[in-house]
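Data deposition worksheet. Section B asks for the primary sequence of the deposited chain exactly as it was used as input, without tags or linkers unless they were present during the calculation. Section C holds the resulting structure in token form. Section D is free text for depositor observations; keep each observation to a single sentence. Incomplete worksheets are returned to the depositor.
Section A, Depositor: J.P.
Section B:
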Amino acid sequence: MTTPAPLAPTDLFAEVSHIITSSHNADETLSRIVRMIAEQTQVDVCSIYGYLSKEDLLVLKATHGLNQETVGQVRMHSSEGLVGLVLEQMQPVHVAEMQSHLRFKPFPQTNEDSFSSLLGVPLIEHRQPFGVLVVHTIESRDFSEDEISVLTTIASQISSLVSKTLLIQQLDKTAVHTAVPVQRGSQRISGNSVASGVATGRAAVMQQTTLEEPTRLSERTPEDELADLQAALDHVTEDTLKLVDKISGYVGPDEAAIFHVHLMFLEDHTFQEKIQQHIEEGATVAWAIYETIEEYLIAFEEIDDPYLREKGTDLKDVGYRLLNYLGHGRSVVTEKAGILVARQLLPGDIARLNPDCIQGILTSSGGVVSHTAILARSLLVPAVCISEDELATIHEGDEIALDGDVGLVVLHPSEEVLGEFSRRLEQERLYRKHLESYRELPCQTQDGERIGIYANVAMEGDVLQLEHYGAEGVGLYRTEIYFLSLDRYPQVEEQEKTYSRILSRVPKDQRMIFRTLDIGADKAAPYMGFQQEENPFLGFRALRRQLRQPEVLKKQIKALFLAARTHDNVQLLFPMVMELDEFRKAKKLVEKCRNELELQGLDVPKLPVGAMFEVPAAVMLCDHFMPELDFCSIGSNDLTQYVLAVDRNNPQTSNLYDPLHPSVLQLIRRLADSAKRHDKPLELCGEMASDPDGCVVLVGLGIRLLSMNPPLIPVVKERLSQVTLEQAQKIAKRALEMHSAGEVRRHIRRTIGTARKLPT
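Section C:
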């Protein structure tokens, strides 16, 4: 019996990822993968079989070690052979002497009977089988658990590729074998994925007129033109605030904050002065705006950083809306149902869409980092970007099948293709229905460890989702969204009414944590008077700014005290605490507000006060904080950014952002241990809480309170119900010893499998 060569899992996984991302031909990619696996694991054969569910056939798609001429020729039913057994059992099968196995079935053309051992693992995506990855050795070999885990991880890496390869080849086959069609022939267009998901429907073409240069010289006085400019600025500012309010009902506050960049442009003095200068030189207001926008766009095009260059699109959106108000804009259709087809979609266009009408988006501009793409993903609308020439071939009413996962568009799809897309849509529907069964269940591990599960909300209407998705309360209410929707700081009475309405929609005994105003230069309304900063994430923001504007903070605290009189469990949370002195000052301000209200003869409750740990410096000194706070929260999004020195919104570094990095996990473990020693409630807010891998690690690290966007609550409940506390603790312990987030994720998926995710 041969001794298997030591494996280098990290190198293997990295090489598989490199092959997938660097190859463009599916057959070539699969061939390179099987050759690499065979060479690096020192097996004699590595093969990939694709599963055609309609015919119930396994087909050899790629091999290293078998006769290459058999690729595409070897076919077997899922009930045949050891490869079929892997598919039947949907789990790894390893046999040291396969010829003695009852299911052994040799195919003469492959010469398989000359091999002794077999290890096969299923290729699964969305809980559906798409094939089998198989290795053979000539000499008998007992595959170790480590070897099985490595091959299982590689299978999870390539499952999506194999499923998409089968779909594309099915499309090719359909196109070739379609008889004289009743309609135009099926056409496949390869583009770039912008937002994931699949969709089918009729093309709803947005007719966009080209924005022509307005008349330059004015026949009116500069004063009249300046008056029109001010009216346009006021109108678009008000319109933008309404867009923020509207879009916040569908997406998160970070996505809605895209429009705060628009507000900053509208309030920018230099921008306004350039327009005014053109007007004073005799130009019409429309031409002055048009020319100023063009000047800025030329400057933006010179910027290498695509993240900063994207600001040019925001400015163009602002300019178009100003010109539209003045009667020089482009036409926009927003109420059509189907696959929206548009040469260019700006953030303002996306915000006006009705997500219930639009099945998908097809455009010729805007990459994956664009604000348009971010909004499309937040609205769960699949989107693909193709060339302008290809877009021009699509007409109103054309049938389209769109795959946002791989950037594939099928124009005039056949019945077979539509059937395949319908099957995938049905899988999503059934999965969502399956998740509904978890909404009313408590969140707990397989062995009964209870996890408190709460909602992150940003708008008054969001609290209506709590019961629907099974939240136990509100773990984070982002009060800044309310402030950003206004054109001035609200008074105590206004805030009290708003907070009281919110609380009236939540059961009195449910936890309701209000985070005080968390504002920085990256997201601010014009009236707040923020100055441009080189790095607003590290600047004058959150609690730092609140303590320098105590009157604003006092009004908010008093309003929350007054609103809390009708609710039993209101708590105050201060964001971005760095030093203990900051927190002490904030607590003194809370006590001062309470005393002032009591002096007015008002009976107000004492509210628990907590700190949000998102600055590494505070985490390192958490034992100093714990005795002085009533509860604490981890803001994992910002904590991850600060620990890894990564801006997750910058496309050049966003691939480095992953909260499962062991350095982040070390800090979370430090906080969990400290909170336990001091008997203080600790919750985690942020995307990590709803990450199907992240939530398992968090429970293992000792976190028992999670807060997330409401629609993802059932996903987390399902995931945690499939693991025991002991499993989670072992995973977390091992994760703390690892070197990268990728290594942590692979370990989780090898141990408990890959979780199903809703499209994002």
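Section D:
The two ends are 48 Å apart (CA to CA).
The mean pLDDT is 83.
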